[in-house]
Structures are given as C-alpha cells and as structure tokens.
C-alpha cells in the first residue's frame, strides 16, 4: 500500500520552481532513459518500482547488509550561481531502517563512492558537501531521524544538524535543497507526500560550496548506505534548477 500511495503522490504533486532565471539542468520526473545521463556506482541501479503505477526509479541500496551506492548526473552545476535541487524519496523495507541517504555536491568525479554504514555512502569523499537524511542513530548522531550538513566526507562531524517534523523512514517525502551563491546560505525544506501536507524549512546553514570543494563547478547527486540494519532507499523523481558548470 505504501508504494501505491507514493506513486500517486509523484504523479500529482506540483513541481517547485527555483526562480525566473533558473534553468532546468536536471529533470527526472521518472528515471526512464537515465542510464545514459546518470553515472551509478556500488549498489545504485535504475529499477521499476512495485505497485499499480509502476515507474522507473533510482534505487541506491537494494535492501542488503553493508551496501553503499552513489549516482551522479553527467551535467555539472555552476557553484558561482544559485541553484535548487528537489527530489522525492522513499526509504523503507527494514525495521529498523538504515542508514539513510545524502544529497552531495562534490568534485572527486563521477565514480565517487564512500563507505557503508554510518558514512551513508559519502564518508571519505573529501571534496564534498553533503546534506544527509539520516535514519539510524550512530555515534555522534542525536537520534534516528535527523538532517545534517557535513563537510569533507567526515561523517562523524556535523557542521549543522536538525530534527525534521516528519519521519524520514517508512513514509515517502519530498526534500528541497536551495543554495544562495551570494550569501552562501543553504536551506533544506521537507514535506510529507500525504494529502494536505505543507513544506517546512527544516535546516539552515552557511557554507561556501566552491571554497569547500575546491572548484567553481561540481557534480551533484546522491549517496546511500546500509550496515548491520538495512533498507531499500529510493529516489522517485529529481530536478535541479541553476546554471551549467
């Protein structure tokens, strides 16, 4: 039933616009045809979802133990201009579920993949800034439902951290990560995909992305991992508005 509910939400939920000057650099309403434009590593794969409204999705971990996956679009993003990334997520299957996903900006290349477990697939990607959606309490996590900004692939150190008002595990949700290149502000918004839900600002931070990753353009994408607990970690749609790098 959860998979069916999520598929309906993807089909009917309105798209978010970044701004009048933003170009649609990346636009996956589904991941049909994405094998030509999306570099995938580890356990990341493009599969057909279950449920009555079947569609092609990006699955970052397949429900096994000690897995790690990453996916990067071939189109790099200009970090001297503001951009926004919006994606719909469903983390499910295990009880408890682990370990979570991260949206990354990185300059180590399209084969970048970090370690499994609490590193969420980005640990060790040094030239990176990660926004993590963490569903398992590892040290030094405050709980098993939090967001964080992490620099330099150091998964044990949170640059900022917050607890969202919605569950990240077991129910589909939408996330929106916006970056203001003039102020270096990062804002992370989350929204349940249940009918009538409203988007909420869950986390705000200030990071010079170009300074952190060492370049004015970067790859963007996702990582995820499992450890001694597991889950299937799926992206159903993804768009990025901004300028080409």
TrEMBL record:
Pfam families: Lectin_L-type_dom (PF18483). Residues 1-19 form the signal peptide. Keywords: Signal. The keyword Chaperone does not apply. SUPFAM superfamilies: Concanavalin A-like lectins/glucanases. PROSITE patterns: LECTIN_LEGUME_BETA. PANTHER family: CONCANAVALIN A-LIKE LECTIN FAMILY PROTEIN, LEGUME LECTIN DOMAIN-CONTAINING PROTEIN. This is Legume lectin domain-containing protein. It comes from Paractinoplanes tereljensis. The lineage of its organism: Bacteria, Bacillati, Actinomycetota, Actinomycetes, Micromonosporales.
């Amino acid at each position: 039933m959860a998979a069916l509910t999520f598929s309906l939400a993807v089909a009917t939920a309105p798209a978010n616009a970044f701004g009048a000057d933003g170009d649609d650099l990346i636009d996956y309403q589904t991941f049909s045809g994405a094998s030509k434009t999306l570099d995938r590593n580890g356990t990341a794969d493009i599969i057909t979802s279950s449920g009555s409204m079947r569609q092609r999705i990006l699955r970052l971990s397949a429900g096994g133990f000690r897995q790690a996956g990453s996916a990067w679009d071939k189109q790099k993003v200009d970090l001297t201009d503001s951009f926004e990334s919006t994606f719909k997520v469903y983390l499910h299957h295990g009880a408890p579920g682990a370990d979570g996903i991260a949206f990354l900006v990185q300059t180590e290349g399209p084969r970048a993949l970090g370690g499994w477990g609490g590193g969420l697939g980005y640990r060790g990607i040094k030239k990176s800034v990660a926004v993590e959606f963490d569903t398992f309490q590892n040290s030094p996590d405050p709980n098993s439902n939090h967001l964080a900004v992490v620099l330099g692939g150091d998964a044990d150190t949170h640059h900022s951290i917050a607890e969202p008002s919605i569950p990240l595990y077991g129910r589909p949700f939408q996330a929106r990560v916006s970056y203001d290149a003039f102020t270096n502000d990062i804002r992370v918004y989350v929204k349940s995909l249940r009918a009538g839900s409203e988007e909420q600002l869950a986390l705000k931070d200030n990071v010079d992305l170009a300074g952190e990753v060492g370049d004015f353009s970067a790859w963007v994408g996702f990582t995820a991992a499992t450890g001694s607990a597991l889950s299937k970690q799926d992206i159903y749609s993804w768009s990025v508005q901004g300028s080409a790098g």
